[in-house]
Design brief:
20 strands; Rossmann fold; 5-stranded antiparallel β-sheet; disordered C terminus; 6-stranded mixed β-sheet; 2 domains; about 25% helix; about 375 residues; alpha+beta; OB fold (Dihydrolipoamide Acetyltransferase, E2P)
Amino acid sequence: MFLEVNDLNVELGEFHLKDLNLKLDKNEYLVIIGPTGSGKSVLLETIAGFFTPDSGKISLEGKNITELNPEKRGISIVYQDYVLFPNMNVFENIAYGLKKKIKDKKMIKSKVVQIAEMLKIDHLLERDPDTLSGGEKQRTAIARSLIVEPNILLMDEPFSAVDIETHAILTTLIKNVISSYQTTVIHVTHNFDDVWNLAERVAVMKDGKILQQDIVSEVFSKPSHKFVAEFVGVQNVFSGKVVETKKELTTVMLEDGTLIRSVDGELKKNDEVLVAIRPENIIISNEPFVSSIRNQLKGIVEEIIKIGPRIWVGVSINDTIFKGMITPSSLDLLGIEKGKKVYVSFKSLNVKIIDSHEDYNSIV
């Protein structure tokens, strides 16, 4: 394992990281998400060496770097506010760290021009930072951090200060340059587009803990905690109790008596659980249909909400609202309106079961 963070504890006044664990392979791109105040920036700065843990261990390529000075870790960090040197032009800013490693001026110039071309700022090399746009400043800051070929590049909300169009451009540029430099990255963000467009793995933090870390599709489709499910947009999270377990199928009864079947979980009868179903995995139809789908429920349309190019349809089944996502054309084709009886169907494969007691203990 390239980077390992084991049982990390950092106390900073009323806030602290709690028994935090993190693993990252070489050249992986990890994005960390979580609400404000969850400790994302503190984690980055502790890995960078700006804070000394009260306990725990940080290892890089098998070497303990927990108490190593920041400048000896080979780790670069990029902040949302750029932190460029105002008395240096773009070329000098980018070359700053490289000059400490290389004395050959021609080689320095070659490397600066190369990365500037990749980030499309080669025409700005003689400009002063205060004449640049936000996107140009951020590309300069990223070039300065990457050119020294760090062991790990840490980025703390790097695109939060730019507009949507610039954000999209930066995302594409960064993806290409990171791939070219084969850099290991930990990127903190509030923007889920960064997760989908950049990350190979994603970690979700809350109250100083990492609740789940996995490949992006697993975290978004199979959240392991109630908070994770709600944070990544799983609209259907319900309490229930396991009433039957078979070799490949678990049946959960919700509090209103609705039965949900899932292939997920190794639980026992009477275990209290949460079930989570992503809205895009719910099929809404006028009639039941013959298929391998284990969950087909009849209900009444209670709400129809347009959000962007999608329609959220809330269907009441007993006393529970199941939310599905359809297109406007499907809404018209099905003739869906409030009060109409419809069928809600979803595969047992798409039902995630979460142990409710485990979930509670892991986030308090």
